[in-house]
Amino acid sequence: MIGLLEDQNRDTLTLSIEDDGKGMDEQMAQKALDPFFTTKDGKKIGLGLSLLSQAARQTGGDLKIDSKRGKGTKITAVFNADHPDMKPVGDVFETMTALVAGNPATQFILDYKTSDYDYHFDSFE
Ligand SMILES: Nc1ncnc2c1ncn2[C@@H]1O[C@H](COP(=O)(O)OP(=O)(O)O)[C@@H](O)[C@H]1O
Ligand SMILES: [Mg+2]
Fold first, then answer.
1. Is 22 near ligand 1, meaning CB less than 6 Å away?
2. Position in ligand 1 atom list of the atom nearest CA 39
3. Superfamily of domain 2-122, CATH level 4
4. How many CB atoms lie within 10 A of CB 15?
5. Domain locations in the chain?
6. Could you tell me the CA-to-CA distances from 104 to 25, 73, 124 in Å, in that order?
7. Residue to probe by mutation, ligand 1, list 18, 20, 25, 39, most atoms within 8 Å of CB
8. Ligand 1: nearest atom to the Cα of 35
9. pLDDT tens digits, residue range 57-104?
């Protein structure tokens, strides 16, 4: 489940990504932000979360991980959208299309709410 929500004053953009996957214990969730931590075989770096966290912090925002082993994970990244180091959001629809096409067995739910969009999408509907 992916949420991309802009606040009314366009000051902050909150990205939340929630899954019902493996989850992480507390120690692992801490390590997950380390650019050299990954549990993927044959891979020595796991840059995803660390880059996202860096991008959020560069705007004066933050990233937090709520996770329970065996239950799932929620990542929340808050960006200060008017900060000069804010990265462009990019084409959300194109990204979703690629995600869904590449992982047809996974259900993706997107809530995308900004001043320009109020969009809900469920890949299983
Ligand atoms: N949603 C998640 N559920 C369970 N484990 C996760 C999740 N996201 C990240 N992790 C753990 O943190 C590690 C680092 O994640 P990430 O920065 O995305 O790099 P990568 O996915 O390339 O390994 C992963 O290898 C995995 O062990
Ligand atoms: Mg990853």
1. yes
2. 25
3. Histidine kinase-like ATPase, C-terminal domain (3.30.565.10)
4. 19
5. 2-122
6. 28, 20, 9
7. 39
8. 17
9. 999 999 999 999 999 999 999 999 999 999 999 999 999 999 999 999
